[in-house]
Amino acid sequence: MGSRGVASYGAADSSPPAKKSMPTRFVQGFRDLLAKALDTVEPETGRRLGKCIGVYAFYDYDGEPLYVGQTTEDFATRVGRHLRGQRSDTIAYRILDPFEVAEIELYPLPAIPDELARDRRVRIDAIEYSAYVSAIRGSKYRAILNEKIPPRSPLVELPPSYRFGLVPEGMREDREHPDVRIARRAETLAR
Fold first, then answer.
1. Cβ atoms within 10 A of the Cβ of 157, count?
2. What share of the chain is helix, strand, coil (3-state, %, to 5)?
3. Which residues pair with 104 in a beta bridge?
4. Which among 93, 190, 105 is positioned nearest to 147, based on CA atoms?
5. How far apart are CA 80 and CA 103, in angstroms?
6. How far is CA 98 from CA 10, 13, 59, 67, 122, in A?
7. Is the dihedral of CA 138, 141, 146, 148 positive or negative?
8. pTM for the model
9. Closest Cα partner for 110 from 152, 161, 76, 154?
10. What is the spatial distance between Cα 133 and Cα 142, in angstroms, rounded to a whole number?
11. CA 24/CA 99 separation, integer angstroms
12. Inter-residue contact 66 to 145 (CB < 8 Å)
């Protein structure tokens, strides 16, 4: 029997399942937690974190820093690219495995309405470099996976940050087991 080019989805109407229902339970939970984090309202400005610009950091299951970056787009766009594997150098170069990210920390940059673009860039570079140095100092390995060091800048006091867990309840134990993590990393490197 030949194929007619239409996949069978097991339903009478043969319509494909909703894209949202296709990922695994873990991925659905991870995305839900990320969406809740980005929907959190930053009290100083009243804006949702997902609409803020600033610096972000990813942490693994042991609380070790994996990556520190900055965005002048907004957190929802940039962080989404990293964690969904969409056009992200860190994903493409196999530096960051999104499934190793257990927590995210966001440092929203306080907005100054008439701030010049150059001044904003200098400020965000200084916050990124300071967060990068702070993450390395807080790491038991004194290392981080960034593909490049952020622009060297004077160390500054970090703005208030917001840290969120991204691992769905009841799934952390399986995901953080060393055998699972080593196998995932070996598979990623093999690709």
1. 7
2. 40, 15, 45
3. 58, 164
4. 93
5. 14
6. 31, 35, 10, 11, 29
7. positive
8. 0.79
9. 161
10. 9
11. 12
12. yes
Structure tokens at 173: 């134990």
Cβ atoms of 168 and 30 within 8 Å: the answer is yes
Q: Which one-letter DSSP state was computed for residue 160?
A: P
What string of pLDDT tens digits covers the 191 residues of the chain?
454 555 545 555 567 767 666 678 888 888 899 999 999 998 888 899 999 999 999 999 889 999 999 998 899 999 988 887 655 555 545 566 777 889 999 999 876 555 666 788 889 999 999 999 999 999 999 988 887 899 999 999 999 999 999 998 887 777 777 787 777 767 766 76
Distance CA 84, CA 96 (A): 11
Gap between the Cα atoms of 180 and 161, Å rounded:
30
User: Looking up tokens 């957190």, which residue turns up?
Assistant: 75
The amino acid sitting at 43 is P
Residues 6+ apart with CB under 8 A from 185: 97, 100
What is the number of other CB atoms lying within 10 angstroms of the CB of residue 13? 5
Look up residue 45 and give its two tokens.
Answer: 């400005």
Which residues fall within 8 angstroms of residue 72, CB to CB, at 6 or more apart?
A: 53, 120, 121, 124
